[in-house]
Structures are given as structure tokens and as C-alpha cells.
Specification:
Elements (H helix, E strand, L loop, with lengths): L4 H4 L14 E5 L25 H14 L3 E5 L9 H10 L3 E6 L12 H7 L3 E5 L5 H8 L3 H14 L11 E5 L10 H16 L5 E4 L6 H9 L3 H10 L14 E4 L5 E2 L2 H6 L13 H4 L16 H4 L10 H6 L1
Parallel strand pairs: 1-2, 1-7, 2-3, 3-4, 4-5, 5-6
Antiparallel strand pairs: 7-8
């Protein structure tokens, strides 16, 4: 796989600094029951990296000391980590909002039969990957049979109250483009998703989030192989909007890897660009417990244009939509 970091090492991306921390995003490991071509984590069934119990305890201590109000769990498939339920339960006991970034099909995997019920019982917000409402597009990107399994999982979640209009159980869907293009306007695409998924399969959901593909890991390597990396970076840079800088997720989020090292965002984590604090080149979670990161400079490279291009892109969807909400 091609290393894209040398291609984005020099940048003129505007300098930005942190605000008060609200979200701790934790990568519980790279094991996943899928191997998606757009995956910026390079996750898959053969990955063995996973967060251990001691680091889980550090995460809980850090959240309590920092005053963060949201725990955002990702992977791989975060549900496959053996400590997943313990972490969720203890965070919810503390009144912390928990988001599970779910690929849907894992809810039907052997050994995961009770996971959907567990998430509902603990009022966990689900942000679920569904990159299209058409079967061939989803299966091309995520693997044969993934679309049908995703629909079955969504029906299961709906049966538990997720995504219903009057329910507190949040079910957000995530769209990302098939190739090196920017996502379409989020609001209009959400209307299409709601209409087509409702009419054809009776699926209901809370919101749609549109995300741009980041030019790193599998997707970045594919662009390099096909000679399209430079063109995609030019697209992102030309579509940069200065007003999106105020809403980028790294302003009030930290990303923690499976070993407990801390980064400004999930994308920097995958590039090996750690959060800088004081004179430390690499920060470990235990070293930051009780530390105020407000005003800390954020490590930026050219891939950051993926978050500020067009309507903007973040773990919460389009930045322009978030600003107007």
C-alpha cells in the first residue's frame, strides 16, 4: 500500500487551535468483519490490534477528569472489542453520551446477537455506515451481500425503536462518495435516503451525515495507484471554505488509538501525526489526565482540506448543515 504522508507533509492549511474539549473519540481496534475500499483505517477481519482493559480504564479516567460529555467509539468494528460493553455501560452510568460507529452487518455476526438490544438498553446513539441506498453501489464498496445484511440490521434497530420519529434512540446514517468527488448537498440527499429507504424497505432513521473520502490509507493508496491523487487534492484545495474552519471536529475533540496514544483527529491518528502538548512529540492518555488542552495548536497537513472543502465534512456530517442547525 502506498504511503501518502510524504505527499501531504508540506502544507499551507491555515493554523487552528483547540477550544474546550467536549468529545473523546476512541478507536477500540482495527478488527472488522468487513474490508471496505474507502476505509481510512485499513481495517479488516485479519487485523488483531485491540484496546486492552487497562487502557479502557484510562479512557474512563480521562473523560471524568476532562469533563468531556461525549464518548465516540470507532474501529474497525468497535463492538468486536471484548471490553466494548463494559466501556459503554460505565460511560453511560456517568451520564456521558455514547456514540457507536457501527457498520450494521456486525449486529448480525456470530456472537453479536444481543448487541443491538444492549445498545438500545443503554440509549447509545448509533451512527451507521450506509454509503448508498442502491445495492450494487454498497456491495461494490463494502463487499457482496453487505447491502442486504445492512437492511436487515436497520430493520432490527427500527424494531427496537431506533430512528422512530418520537424515539430518543438516535440512528444516524452515513454516506460517502464512491470515488474522488465531493459529497452532494446533505439535506437533499437525506430526503432521497428517507424516501427510498422508507418506500422500498420501511426503514426509518434520524439524520443522514455526508462525509468526504479522506486521501489516506486505502483510499489514498488507490488514488496514487490510479494517478488520481494530485487531482483529488487539487479538488479539495480549490473547494476550501474559510468559514468551515470554525466547525472542524478537531477544535473540540481528541482521538485515542488502541494503545492509548492521543491525536487531534482520527485521520491524524491513521497518518501517525500525534497531538503535540508542550515539548512532547507524542502524547499518551495517562499524561494528559487533568491537563487543559484549550488553545493547543492542532497538527495540520494537506489532508485537512478534506474537512473544509465545499459544505465541509466531519464525524457529524456536513459542517455547513451543523452551522445552520
Amino acid at each position: 500500500m502506498h504511503d501518502v504522508l510524504p505527499l501531504i507533509r508540506r502544507t499551507d492549511f491555515p493554523p487552528i487551535r483547540r477550544r474546550a474539549l467536549s468529545t473523546v473519540q476512541v478507536n477500540l481496534g482495527y478488527c472488522c468483519n468487513q474490508s471496505c475500499v474507502h476505509c481510512h483505517v485499513n481495517a479488516g477481519p485479519n487485523r488483531t490490534e485491540e484496546m486492552d482493559g487497562d487502557t479502557i480504564e484510562l479512557v474512563l479516567r480521562f473523560i471524568e477528569a476532562s469533563g468531556a460529555t461525549t464518548l465516540d467509539l470507532t474501529g474497525g468494528a468497535p463492538e468486536l472489542n471484548p471490553h466494548f460493553r463494559l466501556l459503554v455501560a460505565r460511560a453511560r452510568q456517568r451520564g456521558v453520551r455514547v456514540i457507536d460507529r457501527c457498520n450494521l452487518t456486525v449486529l448480525l455476526a456470530p456472537g453479536q446477537e444481543g448487541t443491538a438490544g444492549f445498545l438500545a438498553a443503554h440509549s447509545v446513539d448509533i451512527t451507521a455506515s450506509l454509503p448508498c441506498y442502491q445495492e450494487d453501489n454498497v456491495d461494490r464498496q463494502r463487499g457482496k451481500g453487505v447491502f442486504d445484511a445492512s437492511i436487515a440490521a436497520l430493520r432490527l434497530l427500527n424494531s427496537m425503536g431506533y430512528g422512530e420519529p418520537d424515539s430518543a434512540l438516535v440512528l444516524n446514517l452515513v454516506y460517502n462518495p464512491q470515488g474522488p468527488v465531493l459529497p452532494p448537498p446533505q439535506a437533499a440527499l437525506e430526503d432521497d435516503y428517507r424516501r427510498i429507504l422508507g418506500e422500498r424497505w420501511g426503514i426509518r432513521f434520524t439524520r443522514l451525515h455526508t462525509l468526504a473520502n479522506m486521501p489516506i490509507q486505502r483510499f489514498g493508496s488507490t488514488l496514487v495507484s490510479k494517478g488520481g491523487f494530485g487531482g483529488y487534492m487539487q479538488l479539495l484545495r480549490q473547494a476550501h471554505r474559510e468559514e468551515n474552519l470554525d466547525a472542524v471536529m478537531c477544535r473540540d475533540l481528541v482521538s485515542v488509538d488502541w494503545q492509548g496514544y492521543v491525536y487531534d483527529c482520527d485521520f491524524n491518528q491513521m497518518l501517525g501525526l500525534p497531538l503535540r502538548h508542550g515539548d512532547r512529540v507524542r502524547s499518551q492518555l495517562r499524561e494528559l489526565i487533568g491537563r487543559d488542552l484549550t488553545g493547543n495548536p492542532i497538527v495540520v497537513r494537506d489532508h485537512c482540506y478534506g474537512c473544509t472543502a465545499g459544505q465541509g465534512s466531519s464525524c457529524g456530517g456536513a459542517l455547513a448543515a451543523a452551522a445552520s442547525a
